[in-house]
Write a structure and sequence with these properties.
Elements (H helix, E strand, L loop, with lengths): L3 H9 L3 H14 L5 H18 L3 H15 L5 E2 L2 E2 H19 L18
Antiparallel strand pairs: 1-2
Helix pairs in contact: 1-2, 2-3, 3-4, 4-5
Length: about 120
């Protein structure tokens, strides 16, 4: 599983910058169909980092990019529940758009996803 569990542990501990670095190391060494998967995880990690830093424009940009890449993969990939991650990232994108349109006044950081392993 390319030791993806360490990156997931970092992500799920809200160490998004460190998770980004971890997934990036795997991504650099990957030269097959897994590249977009790891790049998607990198972008979701960066999106979460931007979100907690209140860089909402950067967050929605990275979430959209990561969502597009991860949506090319099956419901479960390398044990990652991709479907649930996409659902949760999609909810954050929706909320960020609502924030931008002033329909809500803040983002609920409790909606930051965890990466589930099946």
């Amino acid at each position: 599983m390319n030791d993806i569990k360490q990156g997931i542990k970092l992500f799920n501990s809200s160490k998004f910058f460190e998770a980004h670095d971890f997934f990036e190391e795997i991504w650099i060494e990957t030269d097959n169909e897994d590249r977009l998967f790891y790049q998607g995880l990198i972008q979701v990690s960066v999106g979460c980092f931007h979100l907690i830093s209140k860089n909402y424009k950067g967050a929605v940009s990275q979430f959209n990019k990561g969502y597009a890449k991860l949506s090319k993969y099956p419901e479960t990939y390398y044990g990652v529940n991709v479907q649930k991650l996409l659902y949760n990232v999609g909810n954050l994108i929706y909320d960020l758009n609502r924030l931008h349109n002033r329909e809500i006044s803040e983002i609920d950081l409790n909606k930051i996803p965890v990466i589930e392993i099946n």
